[in-house]
Amino acid sequence: MIKQKQNKGFTSKFGFLMATVGSAVGLGNLWSFPYRVGEGGGAAFVFIYIIMVCLVGVIAMIGEFVIGKRSGVNVIDTFGGISKWSKWLGYLGVIVPFLILCYYQVIGGWSIKYMIDYIGGIGVASGAGNVGGMFGTFTQSVDMPVVYLFVFAFVVAIIVLFGVNKGIEKASKILMPALFVCLIIVVIKSLTLPNASEGLLFLFKPDFSKVKGSTILSALGQVFFSMSLGMGINVAYGSYMKDSMNIGKSSVLIGVMDTVIAMLAGMAIFPAVFSFGLEPTAGPGLLFVVLAEVFASMGPIVGRIFGAIFFMLVILAAVTSSIALLEVPVQFIVERFHINRKLASMCVAGIVFGIGAFIAMSFGVKAFQVEGVDLLTLFDSITNKIILPITAASTCLLVGYKVKPKNLMNDLGADTKNKIIIYKIWGFLIRYVTPIGILCVLGIGIYEVFSGQAGFTTIEGKLAIILSAIVLVVFSIIANVIANYLYDKKQKNSLQL
Ligand code: PFF
Fold first, then answer.
1. Of ligand 1's atoms, which has the minimum distance to the CA of residue 317?
2. Could you report the per-residue pLDDT of 307-320, keeping only the tens digit for each?
3. What's the predicted TM-score (pTM) here?
């Protein structure tokens, strides 16, 4: 089943890097990293986050690239090639990005609304103090969030429809540098505000007395989401890598660039938050509400310009991440069912949009809520709190025990002198440290669900999260069994690891 590498992947190292960094850099960097830094006490969180990127993020990313590059095919067949009993991980690896995309694009749509409002001057005209209200009114309306979602989803589908090198690679090569330039402009503005240094101190001067166990796990969970780990993305993008591309260097570079952009987002947000006397611990509203307040208080012209640039930035980041999320199911459908890529992209994008529309409307329409809570919170909790840690930890264990030292070294491009040491360190981290860390994240995720911190306070709501996750895992295991019976009976473990 595992074919030779198909020649339709990334054509240049730069293009591959921009696409993978594009998948990594997204709302996780601009939206959740800053608010988690705010909640986690500032620099101490940042410090722990960076350690986690090195010990867990880069290590797991190398593992995912190795299996993807060696197989050259979609996520399900890659896992099926490792062992006929690991296919279930592949099914989850396709389902999870699909589910994440359903709500991720809703936030992408909100960003378009914000950008347009700033360009038209409405964003700042509503004045400081009123932006939070504006956010609530907008998200709770029924029609406009769906319209903006449609625009966003349409753009993403068009890029994926053009394929890996003509669509994803080309778009990423333009969008990522554009994102970087926009971010630098906002950082410079933020750093020149009065009292900006307070924000910088918050971000760079650690106070370890504020670190709790939950801070460490929050950092670890953030590393996973931010580096797009455990969702099949890096397996899919790895399958499009050329042989000459170096997995070790690429993974380190992606980890560094993802972290640098998250830090720049922090440098854009916290000096402004402190300068205007707002709360760094505002939580998920930090990006859409607090920052909008900041722009509103910069005055009609300056606020308008910087608000528009900033939300443009958010859109760019969300688009490049969404194309990665869409690519995973599309790649599988194209390869498995031999369907034309354009048709597959449009069909998957259409279904995602349909589900996304319910999610977008669930803020205002009670009938679409579960136990009084919006569907975005439900989807986010099922995927990020429960399933993602399960797939990520299982992938690390599978890769850690299956990949042979010789092959890993080959793929990492390590020189002979350091080979064994590197393999031993990587092997130890991926077999023990990373899975244990991830399982702790799963533990805290389940705890958050039951303690009501995941947004659901009724027992029915909490069970909705847990049971949905169980259903998905069981479904993927049953699919694995059926696939083995029906058409993969004679299949050998064909992936050379
Ligand atoms: N890493 C992205 C972010 O930080 O927003 C989120 C993401 C994108 C997750 C793509 C998964 C993925 F496949």
1. 5
2. 898 888 899 999 99
3. 0.91
